[in-house]
Amino acid sequence: MIRRLTQLLGNSGQVFSKIIIDSGTLPTIIDMLSSEDADLASESAWIVANVSAGGFKLTSAMVKGGAIPKLLTVFQSSPNETKLSALMAFQNILAGSTDVRESLIREGGLEPALDVLEAPEQYSARFIEIAASMISGVSECTDPPQTTRIMPVLLKFIRDHPNDNAKPLSQVIKVLNSFISNAVVAKVVIESGVIPRLIRLSQCEAENNDVQENALWLLNLVIAGQPNHLQVALDNGLLDALQFCLGLRVRVRLALWAVGHINYGTVTQVTALAQSPLMPLIVDIAIDEAVAYDLRNEAVKALSYTAETASSNPQLLEPLLEARCIETFVELLPLADRIVGDYLLWGIDCFIRTEWTGQAEAMERFKASDGIRRLRDVRLKHWAHRDVGEEIAQRILKTYFPDFSKYPRV
């Protein structure tokens, strides 16, 4: 009977999955998973894997029928061909309803996937793909104890997997992103030694570009608000990775977010940023009309944050001035909405009000780029809640260019 059912399933898929349920033979097939006859257990596992693909009702019936512990035994004690059927069944069950998914996790149904990812060299690519897919499907429903069990496995997989283009690598990194909820968890990532691999993935021209994106996401999560974590990333080439992305205009938004995190680092870290080749690249993105408007705005924010940080350490303003930041701020003023306009004005203000060796040159370059007229125009813009921008513009004019500070007569 079991061989005939195998043939029917192979020919007709979900139709005969339903027949198996309706005929009442599913409990018998589940029991056969425990058979001492290896061939019978193998074919039963194959049938269960196929039946489990038939939808929520079928996966629910299997879980209620006690399939999970029997499939775990099959996975632990069978040859790889049978293990694969068991793993496929777990994957299909995991795709079921929330109750079914939680039952699988509660009964240890993730362990086979973790076993595969923990020792991928022992399994084929198909095993690894299924295991990564399973893990990616449970990130939103794992509690802290499960996270503690899962994270070391994922970190080891990311660190050691040999193929930068592999889809499972991208899936595993994405799952790990969902676990980074606080500094303690981020510290686990740092201590795992995975940062050099993430830096490399961030600047690889992989066929699977999701790998690059997910690696940058994870780096952003780990370094955010954590100078010690940021230093590890910088020591392993973070600035080079960001230069790669911004230079090729790939993953620009994520790269600019990372720049923002560096601006909240230590003086030494901000100094490394300001003196790096990143500033001219960000300026080019901000003024390039071919770049999407929202990305140009992100570039403006990154420049403004850097200028604001540099105003407390005036020696850092020099490389920003050389990168033509002040000309960029002035050039974009007429195009900006209120929010972006405020960032531009803050940036201009940092160069002009800060007492530093290049202050006079900054004011001359500001005037040469038609900055005075454009500041006067800002005061007349119909920005909602324009008081902040108008106040900054008027203060700059009144303090440094008083002859141009009067409002025009009506």
Please write out the topology:
Layout: H1 2-12, H2 14-23, H3 26-32, H4 38-51, H5 56-64, H6 67-77, H7 80-94, H8 98-106, H9 111-118, H10 125-136, H11 144-160, H12 167-179, H13 183-191, H14 195-202, H15 209-223, H16 227-235, H17 238-248, H18 252-263, H19 267-274, H20 278-287, H21 293-310, H22 317-322, H23 325-332, H24 338-353, H25 359-368, H26 371-378, H27 387-400
Description:
By secondary structure, the protein is mainly alpha-helical. It is 73% helix and 0% strand. The chain contains 27 helices and no strands. Helix 17 packs antiparallel against helix 18. The radius of gyration is 29 Å and the shape is elongated.
Shape: elongated
Strand % is: under 5%
Count of beta strands: 0
Mean pLDDT score = 86
Give the class from helix and strand content and strand pairing: mainly alpha
- Chain oligomer state: single chain
Distance between the termini: 96 Å
Biggest beta sheet attributes: none
H/E element order: HHHHHHHHHHHHHHHHHHHHHHHHHHH
The percent range for helix content is: over 70%
Number of helices: 27
Regions with little confidence, pLDDT below 50 for 5+ residues: none
The rounded Rg comes to: 29 Å
